[in-house]
Amino acid sequence: MAAQFVRYTPDIEDDDPHFDESLQTVIAKTEKYITESVEAGGTGRALRDAHAKGYGLVRGQVEILDGLPAEYAQGIYATPGTHDALIRFSNGSPHAGADARLGAATGLALKMFDIPGPTLLEDEPDTGTFDYANINGPIFFCNTVEHYLFIQELFLDAPAYFSQGRPGAHRFFTEFVTGKGTLDQDNWAWDEFLAFLRLSKTAPANVLLSSYWTMGAVRHGDYIAKVRITPDPPSAAAVVRRDIDPTSAAEVFRPALEAELQERPYAFDIQVQLCTDLERMPVEDTTVEWPEKLSPPVTVAKLRLPQQDISGPENLEKMDSLSFTPWRVTAEHAPLGNIMRARKEVYRHSSIARHKLNQQSRTEPRSADEVLGPAR
């Protein structure tokens, strides 16, 4: 069985001689946006440069399952047991405001506690926490930090483009494909643009009913994987507020999430899809969906959300003070690929800048109770 899965080796990632130079430019632009967002963002606070608007901070528990096949029982999933957790549901946009203006891209950021072993963040190796920062799509629209240079600018300026109607949209699309005029025609960003169009057509959904993927590939111990957090079928069937219409009110996602969790518990499956073919399941091309017929996702853990009350401004304040990054993981789960590698320092600098501007302590909590208080 093990022979069908591609084993991890460092050489599966491409070397990029311009990576560090481009990364420093992205970090500088990110810090500039965060600084300016205090006044421009409309909230009076520094915003995240992606997933700026949170819908709620939720208490949870992760149960790592016993009896997993050896290929899946890797890294933290090799030891069955339970871990307290926090979950941040969010919109994917770098902007805040009414839900209808932000699109249907959403995220699920998960923080597990009491995970042994050092993280891959050199400035905080011993936090005992382990993060996922997942999105509600199996693909992503940017493959390299060089392309992120122009894609980041386009997304930060998106409201200005689309406020101009069709001409503005056409200019946005043209500048996306051509890299704002920086790409020669043979290298236009068609694959990334088509991935963006696919994701932009995602229908609005209750955040409890979406599946959330790691944006790219990650190491899974001896193997290579993508990780999906997907609704547990019986829990999904019990959701009452299934239809979400962002045009019906300024806030629609958070009230629906609040109401569901006040009425009943919920559960997600944490699933691992192992790579069997680097050509058809690439590490460096995030625009390619990994075919499930080549390797179906296998449930390795349950994420359980107890019935709880997340209403009230204090929930949003506590959520805002937290930091999530795909690099707060152990070495056995390292993110892979150019754009995933870029997220390490971009997320770290973004978090440092935001916490400093908002005069918040940037310290990893040691438990869910430390953030939300004892469970009732």
From TrEMBL:
Disordered: annotated segments: 352-376
SUPFAM superfamilies (alphabetical): Heme-dependent catalase-like
CDD domains: y4iL_like
InterPro entries linked: Catalase_sf
The protein's name: Catalase family protein
Organism: Streptomyces camelliae
Lineage, broadest ranks: Bacteria, Bacillati, Actinomycetota, Actinomycetes, Kitasatosporales
